[in-house]
Specification:
The chain contains nine helices and eight strands. By secondary structure, it is of the alpha/beta class. The protein has a domain of 168 residues: Vaccinia Virus protein VP39 (Rossmann fold, 3-Layer(aba) Sandwich), CATH 3.40.50. Strands 1, 2, 3, 4, 5, 6, 7 and 8 form an eight-stranded mixed β-sheet that branches. Helix 2 packs antiparallel against helix 5.
């Protein structure tokens, strides 16, 4: 943490230490998590409505790191974090996986400024901010073995965002809450069009009081048709996976 930042409270420090023990993180990653928590709590430009440090530790940092329980996340080397916003889950994963590179893809200029500041302040040299709409990120096509998405859009929409970015064998992991059978069916139909195979959502518990948390995994099993990505906005306006 910087010299101007107050030290985290004993409760918050223990929350972070518990995360480090749970996921086998070293002192460097632990310090980076503390720095990001400090920014989310005190930076007026942080794009997050949660400002209380203990809630940030659980609802943001623990929730991001729970993805490490999936081999597709823990073994990734090239990660695209779509709609990165406040850097969640992208920055915590960059801290935990220093050998991986994480692209923080975000269309909002103010959020990109925060992401750049956070990556610099936290020493995340393996994170790159990409200021663009994901549909226009041509350099990202077929470059990722993992795409992460948290609180961005319906599943069928994020599947369309992610599919062109993934290599064959790569995975989309979407952070979601309570399961919705109809939404999952629509996403499965969209996945079939996009060259993805959807798996049964994985129930996770990032912290003791967390309920109804699920990670939705789709694996790229064949090439995405060349008509994707569609032009910006079309995935939301005319989502794939409508009624069968």
């Amino acid at each position: 943490m910087s010299a101007n930042d107050p030290a985290p409270s004993a409760e918050v420090a223990e929350q972070l230490a518990s995360l480090a023990r749970r996921y086998g993180l070293g002192a460097s990653a632990l310090a980076q998590l503390a720095d990001l928590l400090g920014m989310l709590a005190s930076d007026p430009h942080a794009p997050s409505s949660i400002r209380e440090p203990t809630r940030i530790a659980m609802d943001h940092l623990a929730d991001s790191l729970v993805g490490l329980e999936l081999p597709a996340v823990g073994e990734a080397s090239a990660i695209g974090d779509i709609g990165s916003g406040a850097g969640l889950p992208g920055l915590p994963l960059a801290f935990a996986l220093p050998a991986a590179h994480v692209w923080l893809v975000e269309s909002s200029a103010p959020k990109c400024r925060f992401l750049s500041d956070a990556a610099t302040r936290c020493g995340a040299t393996n994170a790159t901010v990409v200021h663009t709409r994901v549909e226009e990120w041509q350099a990202g096509h077929c470059s990722c073995d993992l795409v992460t998405v948290r609180a961005v859009a319906p599943l069928e929409v994020v599947a369309e965002y992610a599919a062109p970015l993934l290599r064959i064998g790569g995975s989309l992991v979407a952070w979601r809450g309570r399961r919705d059978v109809e939404a999952e069916s629509a996403a499965n139909r969209a996945a079939a069009v996009l060259g993805l195979e959807a798996y049964t959502p994985v129930a996770v518990q990032p912290y003791e009081a967390a309920v109804h948390r699920h990670l939705h995994v789709m694996r790229k099993v064949r090439e995405t048709p060349p008509r994707f990505p569609r032009r910006p906005g079309m995935a939301r306006k005319r989502p794939l996976g409508g009624a069968a």
